[in-house]
Specification:
19% strand; alpha+beta; 30 helices; 1022 residues; 6-stranded antiparallel β-sheet
């Protein structure tokens, strides 16, 4: 059975069946969904029909009430005309088919009118509905019963009609219950459906279809009736009155809830359509499945199975060893085409590899012939040993390396016999690890030659395995490394020297301080050469000798007992012995300067290297060995000279760094003086900074500046630094007298190396005595070709300046001259500016007086408002820098009136509207007049805006609130206040109380309320 399912054809059939399973599931799911949908639709229809019947009954009751309201209006009823009424009501009944009877009874229940003829008198006084109608005087309905007049099941609705306030009788209408059993024409119920109306006592009141079979019967024991009476309204599945299973929807009929209507739909009818759909779907699916299965079997045979069978046959042939087997299939797109192509490629590769294997076997046989030749031609010794370490194959080089003449003498002996005795245990351990771990091992060792010492070799060992991977022997390749060891030793020595030089260079390059450089040189030389004492001597051009300046390993004070070496002696020894030389034993040369070391040092051997740069002698680096002589190798002497060359560069760098630092400090000093000149116009501050830098950078003990008084041609004290007394502060020196007078007169630096010996320094004798000065240097201060004074420097020790010192003194003198000249220029400029400002203000005051004189009524007005405006502006917080512009603006506030014709400005009477228009242009005229003048432009806010008002009703621009400049708001109040307080031809001056009341009233209208408040604070009695 299992073999059956292993076939490809059966698997394809199962695959087709599995492919059809989703369709089968979809058909079953669709049928179930359809059944659920039909149940839902049936429930909805049943409920809708039940509610429609209940609604029809409610509509019938409502129509009956309307009818009963109409009948009392008919004349026969109103007049109790029995004959006319009995003739009228039958006709009405024919038209109203839902009723079985219409009638009228008197108040005592006697029936006097009926649509249905009566053969005997009928009294309705005992009828429940009759009594309820009379008692309630409104509508009343009966239970469903057999009408006593018609003998048919009916529901009677009654209504009393009044006669002069009391009921005269009752009109009634009997609804036909059989009418309820009739379904509406538009009701679409399925076949087998039934409609039932049941009373609360279980009696069937109406039934459709076949009403005659069920009406009047009590069916309260049936399941459906029990459910209806218990639930009142809802849906239920149960057997109908005839025992057929149905889906029922039921609801109360009317407001009294005495009748219930139910609509039942057979369940068989509900699922018939869904079952038919399921059967049809399964039939179609079965048909499609058979067709698809047939096509799959046929197509699989044509498209798959035949090609697969060819692949199987080709694979069988290939497995049998036929490397020519091929599938014979075309390499089409798809998995089978790719499989056929891959199979054929695989067969081709197997065939090619078989051919290569045969060729390789042939090549191997040839290579074995060459194998022995290659081993013998190898420059290295090659040994093959068994797992015990005994050689089984060796070339001639191996025999020669251990001192044997024939390779056969090596075969069979343990390999460890050929190693030096001290190395045999280590060699044995390496061979064991090679066998145990199967790893290639490298090690260096010495071979013991027969009667010829040892040979250093490098051995590479590897484990040899057979075809099964099992160890079968050891392969050792032995290489003579004698030359390599010698080269490595040379490299090591060179590397040590290079490392020492690199370390020394790194340490020296990181230092620019001379003392640190010299100390580092000695320490590095001692470390590199492994000597106890090293020293550095530097050449001093002043005395032409080399002086010992730094040492390591011995106290410096002891070594400095050595006498300086004259340059001539040093160069003679260097020419005889070279730039670097060794004195093997200092004790053997007792008469030479080289051996003049203190006895306590016990110096024996000295190595010396010349420190020079660009053929200029700098000094010497010395290494000294104590107690025992020492032989210095050429490499060590080369290292010493390398250290000396590095020392030359480091010393040159340190000296350059010292000069650069000195230059930088002096440049910084000049920059400090420049900053003092540019940032301060106080000459005393600048001269103090100058003297501080002069004494610091030039090393002077004291310094002073004497300024030339051009009217008397005398030098007078201006500033000084470093003096112990104040004697120099009263100096008045004429040109040409003393060093300072000569420097100013001759316009050059005058130096006095010895104040005691120089007769021209007699003027400074008291200063020399009190201060202890020895030397003096006087430099003239010249700016723009004019002598401004003299800079004097004093030192209390002898001093010989160099060119750099003198140049810096000249630079300081130039800076001092510039500072003095700038201060003079600034004083002149400041005086000119003050004079110009006073002229401007006087001119403006003249303009203001001219404006007041033009208008006799306002004479003195500009002066008064100006003073008051300045006071109030200051109180409002306007800065003093702006106050000058406030004052000018107040003086010129009416400058625009110069452009107003006299006929308008001086008119004695009131102005016309046209004249006011011209008058109000005077702020604009002021703006046009003053804006082209730059120094008056900041004063424009008052002339231009003093007629603007806080509420925006002013002129000329209608500015409002803080849009008006603050100074204009201040002046506006002052201007009005002064105008009200002044006498006019047309009115008297206002008293201050009235003026203050007016100002308060105009706050926030004409004036800024803050300005008004500040004005009253200033003018308060306190």
């Amino acid at each position: 059975m299992r073999q059956l399912f292993d076939t490809l054809r059966v698997q394809l059939v199962l695959l087709v069946i599995l492919a059809l399973m989703p369709a089968l599931f979809l058909a079953v799911y669709t049928a179930a969904a359809t059944r659920n949908h039909e149940v839902f639709e049936a429930r909805r229809d049943a409920v809708r029909h039940a509610r429609q019947i209940a609604q029809n009954h409610a509509d019938s009751v409502a129509d009956t009430r309307d009818l009963l309201l109409t009948l009392p209006l008919l004349r026969p009823v109103r007049e109790a005309d029995s004959g006319a009424c009995n003739n009228l009501f039958p006709n009405l009944l024919k038209q109203l088919t839902r009723y079985v009877n219409l009638g009228v009874a008197t108040a005592n229940g006697q029936l006097f009118c009926s649509s249905v003829p009566v053969t005997a008198p009928v009294n309705l006084s005992d009828a429940t509905y009759f009594r309820r109608a009379l008692d309630s005087r409104t509508f009343a309905a009966s239970d469903y019963h057999i009408d006593r007049v018609t003998g048919k099941p009916a529901m009677v609705l009654a209504y009393p009609f009044p006669d002069e306030g009391a009921p005269a009788g009752v009109v009634f209408a009997a609804l036909d219950l059989e009418y309820l059993s009739q379904m509406p024409p538009d009701a679409e119920l399925p076949r087998g459906a039934e409609v039932t109306i049941v009373h609360r006592n279980g009696s069937v009141v109406a039934h459709w279809p076949d009403p005659q079979l069920w009406i009047g019967q009590r069916m309260g024991d049936t399941p459906v009736i029990k459910t209806i009476l218990a639930q009142k309204e809802g849906i239920a599945e149960a057997a109908g009155l005839d025992g057929v299973p149905r889906l029922f929807a039921f609801a109360p009929l009317g407001d009294a809830s005495e009748l219930y209507v139910s609509v039942g739909i057979p369940t068989e009818a509900l699922f018939a359509e869904a079952d038919r759909g399921l059967v049809n779907s399964l039939g179609i699916l079965a048909f499609v499945g058979v067709v698809v299965l047939g096509l799959a079997l046929t197509g699989s045979d044509l498209l798959v199975l035949r090609r697969v069978k060819k692949l199987v046959r080709a694979a069988t042939r290939l497995g049998a060893g036929n490397l020519d087997a091929r599938t014979g299939l075309s390499y089409q797109a798809g998995e089978l085409g790719q499989l056929a192509h891959t199979f054929d490629e695989m067969a081709t590769q197997l065939q090619r590899r078989e051919a290569e294997r045969q060729a390789a076997e042939e090549t191997l046989r040839a290579s074995q012939e060459r194998y022995r030749t290659l081993i013998e031609a190898s420059p290295d010794a090659i040994v093959v040993a068994d797992l015990t370490g005994s050689p089984i194959l060796a070339n001639q080089k191996a025999a020669t390396m251990v001192g044997n003449s024939n390779a056969a003498e090596v075969i069979g002996r343990p390999m460890t016999d050929f190693f030096a005795p001290d190395d045999r245990d280590r060699a044995q351990e390496v061979l064991r690890q090679t066998i145990d771990l199967g790893e290639v091992r490298d090690f260096n060792i010495d071979l013991q030659r027969e009667g010829d010492g040892a040979t250093p070799v490098e051995i590479n060992t590897a484990l040899m395995r057979d075809a099964g991977g099992n160890p079968r022997g050891l392969l050792a390749i032995i290489r003579d490394v004698t030359e390599r060891r010698e080269a490595e030793e040379r490299v090591r020595v060179e590397a040590e020297r290079t490392a020492a030089l690199v370390r020394s260079a790194a340490r020296l390059n990181a230092r620019l301080d001379m003392d640190a450089v010299l100390s580092a040189i000695c320490e590095e030389a001692a470390l590199a050469l492994k000597v106890p004492v090293t020293s550095v001597s530097l050449y001093d051009p002043a005395d032409g000798a080399l002086h010992l300046v730094e040492a390591h390993g011995a106290p410096l004070d002891i070594l400095r007992q050595l006498s300086p070496i004259p340059r001539s002696t040093f160069e003679r020894d260097a020419n005889e012995r070279g730039k670097v030389f060794v004195i093997p034993d200092l004790e053997a040369l007792p008469d030479r300067l080289d051996s003049a070391f203190p006895a306590e040092l016990q110096a024996r051997t000295l190595a010396l290297a010349t420190i020079a740069r660009d053929d200029h002698l700098i000094g010497a680096l010395t290494a000294v060995c104590l107690k025992q002589p020492r032989v210095f190798s050429n490499n060590e002497l080369a290292l010493l000279q390398g250290l000396a060359d590095q020392a030359a560069q480091a010393i040159a760098n340190a000296r350059m760094a010292e000069r650069t630092s000195r230059h930088l400090k002096r440049l910084q000093a000049l920059h400090t003086i420049d900053m003092a000149i540019t940032s301060s116009l106080d000459l005393r501050v600048t001269l103090n900074v100058l003297l501080d830098q002069a004494t610091t950078q030039l090393g002077a003990d004291a310094a002073n500046v004497l300024m030339l008084e051009p009217h008397t041609n005398t030098l007078e004290y201006a500033a000084g630094r470093g003096f112990r007394s104040a004697a120099l502060e009263h100096t008045r020196l004429r040109l040409g007298r003393g060093p300072s007078g000569r420097a100013a007169f001759e316009r050059r630096i005058i130096s006095v190396p010895s104040l005691d010996a120089d007769p021209e320094a007699a003027s400074l004798a008291s200063l020399v005595a009190s201060e202890g000065f020895v030397t003096c240097y006087s430099s003239p201060l010249i700016a723009k070709g004019n002598v401004k004074g003299v800079l004097e420097l004093f030192k209390r020790v002898p001093f010989e300046p160099d060119d750099e010192w003198t140049q810096f003194l000249e630079a300081l003198s130039t800076q001092a001259a510039i500072a003095i000249d700038n201060a003079g220029l600034f004083d002149g400029l400041q005086r000119s500016n003050v004079e110009l400002t006073l002229a401007y203000d006087n001119t403006l005051e003249g303009w203001s007086r001219a404006l007041d004189l033009r208008d006799e009524e306002t004479e003195g007005h500009s002066r008064r408002v100006t003073d008051m405006t300045v006071r109030l502006a200051e109180a409002m917080g306007i800065s003093w820098e702006q106050m000058v512009h406030v004052r000018r603006g107040a003086l010129l506030h009416d400058i625009g009136k110069m452009g107003i014709p006299d006929t308008i400005l001086l008119k004695p009477g009131p102005l016309t509207n046209e004249e006011w228009t011209v008058m109000r242009r005077h702020p604009v005229l002021a703006h046009e007049l003053l804006s082209p003048i730059p120094f008056l432009r900041p004063a424009l806010p008052i002339p231009y805006c003093h007629h603007e008002k806080w509420d925006g009703t002013g002129y000329p621009r209608g500015l409002k609130g803080e849009q008006i400049p603050l100074e204009a708001r201040v002046f506006a109040l002052v201007d009005v206040c002064d105008a009200l307080a002044s006498e006019r031809p047309y009115r008297a001056a206002w008293p201050s109380e009235l003026i203050h009341d007016y100002l308060r009233s105009q706050s926030r209208l004409h004036f800024d309320p803050a300005v008004v408040d500040k004005f009253f604070v200033l003018n308060s009695p306190s």
